[in-house]
């Protein structure tokens, strides 16, 4: 039963009735609303990074508080994606999305006016709750509004391009705001946009639900939230401490992994699970999820190191750094805009593999970077990087979402977004550890520098600069030069490791389907996801050949079984 019972139907708004009368013509307006929502969520993941020095100067947070100011948002958001994605399938995706808008706007106001580190941490956590409501809902509503796979591919291309714009635009917008206003302005910009989009969303967005049979598994949802929180926290701690046996990293990581294993076992036993684990028996779905993890692992780790290189080696300002990354954003937009055309021509397998290969080529090209600025090289590398990774992410998301039945779109979307967040955390941890392992040995024996200062300089390039300035004289100059040389060496090693991971992703993508299969639109009688009056009680129109929205697409083997 697909959750489209007449008793659940709400009265459609005039815009929704117009959509029904015109065959869903306003679904592109719906997509625009969803994309604006996504931009705000993606912006907040990166916009604070350039404001951290100003926040530190104003609020004087301790080291742990500063860590939580930065990490509270992505940690809370990642941990609650499955909970709110599956809740939207039950109670209505638009309802969860609109509530997320309200929470996000209120939390932005609290964050902008925070007068202490504790208040800012709480506001960032609240932003994470709002973001976790918004992200899977946008993708699952998109899945419902675009039942035709060709149109949905174009919509997902736009959606992924907008996500790239939001993430890459964060440092640029944040750098501009911090230079001209105060750090709270990076949150304040959310409020007028949320004030506009909340009534628009209520007016324009169609309500849709998935399978509503049986009780919602509250315990399972909490287990998933705690498991993802522990796993992401542990991975982030590994990236910060660079020690595999660090207790503060291993304890939450192991607990999180154990809870996720128990969650999977629980879902397999339940008659009405939160997430149908049979999805993972489909090679295309599982491979798509793995490709998303690998692509995000490469993207976030490389972006973090690239930002450090631009600011600490080339000494660019935060705004100049953000502008240098704009070619990556524009290339990602181009890949998203042309993604549906490319996917239809060459198919998911070739498209994802090609995206990984392009990204690996970009990474290897960037190994030519040195201690001197080479703008043309960086621009070419960032263009290839943005186009390649966005090509991979687009085709992987489209394949993953098309493999999932419309009735479980919220759960599938939450799996994709959780994979996105896990990949980002793993990228920071893994590539950060590789970077540190290659960087630190170069500072072990610098002439004239005491061992204690060398050990401190080995923690990061920024700390090495501070110690070099404190030492002064020939010893300080030697430490400064050695640190720059070691950082660039570590960057080259990290890029080579990244290229290896990307080539592994290209090999993994060979399990995806060769062609993009486009059958009949897989919607129920609601068509584009707008709830229309039932033609007969709980039944589709007579003679309809379209399957119900909650009915999964079965393979020949599953039908035979």
UniProtKB/TrEMBL annotation:
Residues 30-516 form the Major facilitator superfamily (MFS) profile domain. It is a multi-pass membrane protein. Its main location: membrane. GO terms for biological process: response to antibiotic. Residues 520-561 are annotated as: Disordered. CDD domains: MFS_MMR_MDR_like. SUPFAM superfamilies: MFS general substrate transporter (SSF103473). GO terms for molecular function: transmembrane transporter activity. It is found in: Cell membrane. One of its GO terms (cellular component) is plasma membrane. Keywords: Antibiotic resistance, Cell membrane, Membrane, Transmembrane, Transmembrane helix, Transport. Pfam families: MFS_1. The chain crosses the membrane at residues 28-52, 64-84, 96-114, 120-142, 154-176, 182-204, 216-235, 247-264, 284-305, 325-344, 351-370, 376-397, 418-439, 487-510. The keyword Membrane applies. Gene3D superfamilies: MFS general substrate transporter like domains, Multidrug resistance protein D. This is MFS transporter. The lineage of its organism: Bacteria, Bacillati, Actinomycetota, Actinomycetes, Kitasatosporales.
